[in-house]
Amino acid sequence: MILLCPVDSGQLLLEQSMFISTEMGQAMSREISEGRLKLNQRLVPVHLPYEGLLTMDYGEHNHLKVELKQWLSMGLPQQYQGENLSGKRLIIFPMHGLGDQMYLAVALRYLATLYPGLKVTIVKPSIASAEQWYPLIYFESFYETTGPVVKPDEMRGYDYYLNAEHFAHVSEYNGTYPPEFYIRHFFHHEPHVIVEPVPQITPDSIKDTPNGSAVSSIVRSLKQKGKPLVFVNSVSTGRVRDLPINTLIDFIKLSEDRFSFLVSSFNRPDIQEAVSSMNLSHVQSTEGLIKHVRDLCLIISSCDLVITTDSGITHLAEALSVPCGSVFNVVSPEERTKPYRFSESLNVDFKLEGICETPCYVHALKDGNLCPGMAYINNDENERLFYDYPPCVTHLEGEHLVLLLDALFETFGWKGGKEIHG
pTM surpassing 0.90? Predict the structure, then answer.
């Protein structure tokens, strides 16, 4: 285990080493540079084994880094480089996003058909909500899970490891359907034909949902109006793909005569307040409904249609065979939904000459970390603001979402009227 002991001047001493996450290693690096942490043993990271340590700046403690020669001398596995995996054990440290992992699972199913007897272990993140996804995504018999901490003795039991945690800014990733990128970039194969190219989740995904009775009650009350029920999600984990609240509300108002709506509030009190202020009996938010990802799956499967920003909802809807219209600005629709059977898309077309244009491939924003469009507006107006939305989506109007919903409805129909078809 990792044991942090207090020493003089409020510093910490690392007494015993083990596999640590990249994020933990970066945090330690900051503490070392600030003089709050001292090391006396070599560190072995988990997500970026020897590469991660070689790129971290430990200042006067750089001599404690584990280098590749020592890594292999400890009996630890090599990084996978395309070797034959028949009968082998492969441990993978994946991206934490729901969509990223659903894509990874598509590639791994293809890999399992190539290598009989392959056993794949997926390392879980130390994020409770993300860990809920694992039984839904990695449900076939060739999978097992471990972590989030992986000890050296366990690592020695694998033939190869694979770091699939950081790749979103690799140039080859842009313009490619992610499972094909995984197959080519990580597994060193040409993905001529992937038998099942779309995301899948376990058939039991909507069984034993923690808040199933409350979800079913809300769905029944909304469907009593006799209108198609639409699940709407305007929030992504990266913020840059979020849809403006005003656009969302205008969209609902323009469509309320023909549809009922269940709107994801996603821990956003501003969305919850906006939906509540409409005071419409056939428009509800998900506040208090989603206690587990299985509740979310039940909601999606119970609705007739889905409208969402580019997010994990797009992939869950496809896996649940529910028609879904998605709004794209960061990537083009073809890069994310090319083989999808139940999908329509709206591509935000925006350009600031010489500054930015869609698709921009800026996958996430954090406070203080501006996208180029935000930075341009700040510079133009002599401001230093972090905006709620990037400029590309502020030009998105409720009428645009109405067109997307109409296209979805025309193509697929709804369960309460004509049959859904793909």
Answer: no
